[in-house]
Request: fold
Amino acid sequence: MLKSLIDLASDMGFMYVDWRMIVMWAVVAVLMYLAVFKEFEPLLLVPIAFGALLANLPTEGVLNKPPAPIISPAEGTVVSVFASEGGKVFVPRVVKHLPTSVSDAIASAGEGLEQAQADVDRYFKFVGDVTSPESREDAFKKAKGIPDLVAIIRPAHAEFKTDKEAAEANMVFKVKFNGRDLELKGSDLLVWAQCSGDVTGVMAQAGEKVANGQELVGIYSPRTGGLYYYLQLGVLLELFPPLIFLGVGALTDFGPLIARPKTLLLGGAAQFGIFATFIGAICLGFTSQEAASIGIIGGADGPTSIFTTNKLAPHLLAPIAVAAYSYMALVPIIQPPIMRLLTTEKERKIRMKSLRKVSRLEKLVFAIMVTIFCILLVPDVSALIGMLMLGNFLRECGVCERLSKAAQNEIINVVTIFLGTSVGITMTGDRFLRTDTLSILALGVVAFGFATAAGVVMAKIMNLFGGDKVNPLIGSAGVSAVPMAARVSQVEGQKADPTNFLLMHAMGPNVAGVIGTALVAGYFIATLGN
Reply:
């Protein structure tokens, strides 16, 4: 009777809930409140929040991976393989954050070899208790969120961010696991099962050299992957960001930028936030690739952040995507205090001259010339710039109305739903409530603040050199959040003078920021990519 009740509890999923999930439910509630009741970019926040809710429930058929051979994560030597042909591997319904190497299992960093040995012993005993075949029948053990450990690989080459990491990686530990006495190094990589299934073959043995991506163990299961396993491929394969740019191009009027080209300087100045955060992240111990990916958050451009991170630091894709999209949605909260701090009431009341009318031919030539120039300058960002200008050309040419409307409505709306929920579904409690993730979120705020401030200050500098006065409030629109940042400039301007209309003037630096952020991303990819 007791076993039946335990099995029932396991099937229902209540036992998988932990405090991290409950904390994330509160985060979801805040995001939903801001989206639904405060109307802070609900088209972004609602999909992200709902995806985060799904991520913090013990779902079935949503996130699970399909059966596939387990591969080596790096070139190196096989220390041990724990799967056997004809056996099974098990993955629980909810998988917690897993260490990727032996040194990741050290809880008491810096306490010396003896304490490190104790930490590693404790961790491997815990993993063994949870993943042993007998324990899999215990529903409470399944809820620990630890899949089967399939193999351990000693990498041929290892890179370390700090001397402490290098010291931990070179430590040697004697461990008893799965009935075997093992001698492990801190740099040894742990290879976990990705899905439950039958072991159809073991293609590597202890002591054998393996290449990066070489198959170690074959797995069979009749089950397919979950819904978001496949939808997230749109992020991982870099399909969604260019499609979003197609829609943005079709929705955006580049006329204000063409009519007042000097606002390009405001869009360029806002990129200062990216470089300032890049330097700050390096000082905090992030690698140059990681720092570049974090810095792009300052551009307030979610698709470009995803595109860049996917190429430079894919392991940080989840927190960076969440930060970028969250701050895009929170533009009306983050920017106004900075704008008011850096401007006087007199400056906020500056009226700008009406923009001249821009002809259709000018807009078409602009789209073509920007495409050619930007791709020749930074080829690595061709997909983003190409789709952005294609969307704009469809809008302005006047003979592709159906295609333009499809890009403005059906395509961008569908992709926004899939991209938003795909971003949200990475916000699992055990991944989100970590020091490195919270550091990235904090750096994202810094990046966004610097970008906003730089645009405002640049507008003030431009006014020192005479000519038509520029209202400094439009400088904050130099970030890529189109048209959110431009609307914030309009709202703040009307608080100072209800009869002042800044929206179209702010669209110039706003669209310049889109192009500028894409070019900076391309520069980082070209110089820091492998």
